[in-house]
Amino acid sequence: MKKLYLLICLLLFGILSSAQVSTLLEKGKSGIGIKGSYKTTTGIYALGGKVGASISGKVDIELCYKNYFWNRIYNDLLLDNATSAYYEGRVTWWLFRKEVVPGIDINFGLIGGYNYCSYNNFTYSSDYDSSIIFEDSHFTDGQFGLMSSASFRVADSWYLQPSFGIVFDMGQMNVLKNGEPISFSTLSIVSYTGLTIMKRFSNGSGVYTEAQQILETQRNYPAYQFSIGYVLPL
Fold this sequence. Notes:
Layout: H1 3-10, E1 31-41, E2 44-55, E3 59-70, E4 83-101, E5 104-125, E6 132-153, E7 158-177, E8 180-200, E9 206-216, E10 223-233
Antiparallel strand pairs: 1-2, 1-10, 2-3, 3-4, 4-5, 5-6, 6-7, 7-8, 8-9, 9-10
């Protein structure tokens, strides 16, 4: 099995954990948000969380953590102790936020971010001679892209928010395979499509649930994320 290729394919599994704080608050409001998420794709799933803050409804600052769980048989691993951890920091600058008609808002922003992902205790058989390979690696990555969404008020306190984003990623993978270091650069494109359902309360806070599909150029099949979160104006 091409284990290094598998790792590259997995790199962007945690990216675009969306639902920024600004677009879930009333326009122009600062606030904070928190959410928990479950993410899955073939042979892997992840549990994670995100905290974020909105500055005057124009800039979002977000920090994300995810922990991966691997299917040993599907991924051709010999042991069950493989672990992966993903950390992300991201800033979104909302260039355009406008109510186009009563009850319908359009949002458009620029994304910039940085992430770090570690892979530890991967043990598998070589594709060439069946020898045992012990592998640890870590990946650093820079991100930039575009995010857009529309917010529809469907009742007095209920909102639907479809969204779409595209992100370009440039990174560096560092692998330690049986004590031998290997490094290489990567480039990938990720697209994100999501739908958020939110209930807003009289004080401007809100609870929401979100479903997302993520596609990226290194994979032939999508990842899916499901989240529950809360936002609070300040």
